[in-house]
Amino acid sequence: MKSNNNKAWSRRITSGVSAIAILLMFNQCVQEYEEVQEVEVAPIQMPNDSIHSVGDVGSGSNEEEADIVPEEEKETGATEVARTAASVGVQNFEQIDASFSALTGMSRFNNNNIRDAYNANFLGLPNNNSVKSFNAANTMAVFKLASTYCSELSNNMTARNNFYSGVLDLTRAPSQVLANSAQKQAFVDSMMSRLWGSGVEDGDPMNQARSELLLLVDELLADENMGSANTTRIVAVGICAAMLSSPQVIYL
Amino acid sequence: MKKVVSLCLLVASVQAFGDTSRKQAWDLHKRIAGVPPTPQVLNQMSSLIESKPGMEGLESAAAVAIENPNFYNVTLKAWAKTLTNTNDSNRVPLDDMSATIIGAIRDSDQPGKPFGRILHEDVLYTGSGVAMYSPANNTHYEQLENGGANLKNILVERKQSDIGSVSDSRGIAGILSSRAWASAYYSMGTNRRATFYLLKNFMCSEMDYIMDTNLPDIFVARDVTRSPGGDSSEYKSYCVGCHAAQDAMRPAWAYYDFDATTGQISYTQGQVVQKMNQAGDTFPDGWVTPDNNFRNLWGSMSVHMERLGFKPPFNGVGAADLGKQVARSSGFANCMTYEAFKKVCYRNPAASESEFISDVSQELESTGNMKEVYKKVAAHCVEDKYEE
Fold first, then answer.
1. B327-346 burial, b for 16+ CB within 10 Å, e for fewer?
2. Mutate to test the interface with B, among A37, A54, A67, A94 (most CBs of B within 10 A)
3. Cβ of B14 and A203 within 8 Å?
């Protein structure tokens, strides 16, 4: 029994570390443009505004005109290259919490464990939407919060029934609900649809992602008691936490 | 581990696949509300995007996303909070100022309720179901936030004159007479901070970038030395650049203070607070503020007048008049558009987007509808992202 518990925790930790690795690796996938040529943002023409109509608009005069980008922020002014690169953001602390809540149906406002996890990781969660400032401390905090949301989700019967309805029966053992590849495939597909949006992403890369998630299911099941519903919950929490804290959810 | 790393790379690279309208809807919703859409909303938004090509469909979809409570509870709150403190931090409690900004944006599509009114009208937003609003503490708003209140639904517009937020109704000036504003910008000091943050937060103009050493310095107060370090050229070539216009505007705050003991804003009609004319020995011939009549030199004669876009009159009486001048300026509309753009696009507007930004800004100036601004810039950024 103790050995089984140790294994279970070992799997949980492996799952956690894996999810963190997802975030860390993705973080390093983000392309940085180190030497973006700074471009002065063009003045805004306001032909109908007498105050802003300086000389002949469009004549190419050098007179100072209104410019919406504050002077102190012009060094970050977007070039066309940076414009594309910077179109990705990361959720801030409240957006992450609100997203986890929206996706799981759980809330820190009526669940003490989630509230405690949010407060404990508050400073570690991203402060703003800048993907460039997303770091290892953020990934740890995001995963811890995601794990708590998923764990509490599996413990709350109403929320669990709502979320896992048609996805996975957590009251039954893996030998019944995750016994073959078809069942595992259905579980992973449903989870992807539930957490990553139905029909939002598809194609070969998503198929490969699906394959990797299936392998993760197998890893979580390996050496576990296939006759215990507790194992089903462990798998559900592991997959849920990994997917919830993934870039598909927390990146903007 | 290798498997999981592969998964990461795969997820990261799934950009060019999937149903574009659903992807755009997903993206648009997250930009506006900060959270993924429900399956029903995702379907609704993607249908709207499919039914009307281009910006029209995206704007219709954006209008759906704006109805999500998290647009108010998360997106707007995160921005509004940064305006309430000198650290620009969003890790501070909800307060009367941030709640009023959120409520005013919600109502800015209603007739006679342009967003700019927050800077001068007799208005403050409060909630319900928690401790009563008090001008002496922030408990009401903290309880709202800690209880997870739906700000979209619960905020109610009230008159400051009815709830007694300011002891004298002549001192009412929108959020400029809110407790949070007073605590952050009238507390101690010389009240110059209030001008600094009014221009920084609502006109996106930091003092260093709108200084003008050619302005007359007759309104520079006595507490400003004319020869810092014994060098008068320093004053003439640098200090005066900010103080000339800033000190001319400062009398607008002449009767305001924040009483840390009672925790309330203090307003003394007809009596200039001591700190306005303190340190008279520093330069005895300097300007002495006699009342709350102010001049707006940035609007009337500064080299930055076009950028700021103030409209006459360039003088007034009290904070409400100053707030009104800011609210009516094109600089305010530009700034609010820029802030919304940054919030939902995660970047500065590029040169090629100037015309679009200008159009949105001018529309805001004429309508005061901030929800329309968020709708348009979010739709634009999503269209721009998936253009190719």
1. bbbbbbbbbbbbbbbbbbbb
2. A94
3. yes
Q: Are A212 and B3 in contact (CB under 8 A)?
A: yes
Contact B346 A87 (CB under 8 A): yes
Q: Are the C-beta atoms of residues A194 and B8 closer than 8 Å to each other?
A: no
CA nearest A95: which of B77, B145, B66?
B77
CA of A87 to nearest chain B CA: how many angstroms apart?
6
Taking all residues of chain B, what is their mean pLDDT, rounded to a whole number? 94
B260-283: b (≥16 Cβ within 10 Å) or e? eeeebbbbeeeebbebbbeeeeeb
Q: Which among B6, B34, B351 is the nearest to A212, CB-wise?
A: B6
Share of chain B above pLDDT 90, in %: 90
* Chain-chain contact of B11 with A213 (C-beta, under 8 angstroms): no
Average pLDDT over residues B56-85: 98
Burial per residue of B124-157, b for 16 or more beta-carbon CB atoms within 10 angstroms, e otherwise: bbbbeebeebbbeebebbebbbeeebebbebbeb
**Which of B3, B42, B206 comes nearest A215 by C-beta?**
B3
pLDDT tens column, B111-149: 999 999 999 999 999 999 999 999 999 999 999 999 999
Provide, as residue numbers in chain B, all residues whose Cβ is less than 8 Å from the Cβ of A70.
204-206, 209, 335, 338
pLDDT at res. A89: 85
Distance CA B204, CA B82 (A): 13
What was the pLDDT predicted at B387? 80
